[in-house]
Write the structure tokens for this entry.
Amino acid sequence: MNDTIEQLFKNLDHQFDVETPALGHQQRFMDKLNASKTDLKVTSNKSSYWKPLLAVAASIALILTITFNLKPDTADKDLASISPELAETQSFFASTITFELKKLNTEKSPETEQLVNDALLRLGQLEKEYKNLKLNLIESGEDQRVIYAMITNFQNRIDLLQSTLLQIEAIKTLKQNNYETTI
């Protein structure tokens, strides 16, 4: 093995570059190297501005596409979207609830404030239950039990408002009777 290596070096004897470079060679080399670095920096800076922005824009576009394609349309799915009869039913209940709620707000006084606030709190709970029923309606594929539960929720809200109004009337009557007996 040693013989082959020595033979190789003997064969390549005068082929190596053993000359000394000219005076100032190192300085010229460093100047050329620094010049090429600044050329690279200028070109790389130009491309480094738009590439991150392009990546961010692509990420945002991807997120928006996924969001809008995977998100179910929960806002439009309620009784009105199932049939015209149920749309009419929903409209009737909604208008009745609005009417009763306006009556309740006009009857609010210092004596009935706690009663009205409790009724409004319970009404908010029923509204949350209704939103859950809307989600169940989407998941169940318009199951009749969910539809009946939604209608019952409307009826419960109306019953709550009407019973609160009756209690307010009873308080007014009691107050009127107490006022008459004290005079």
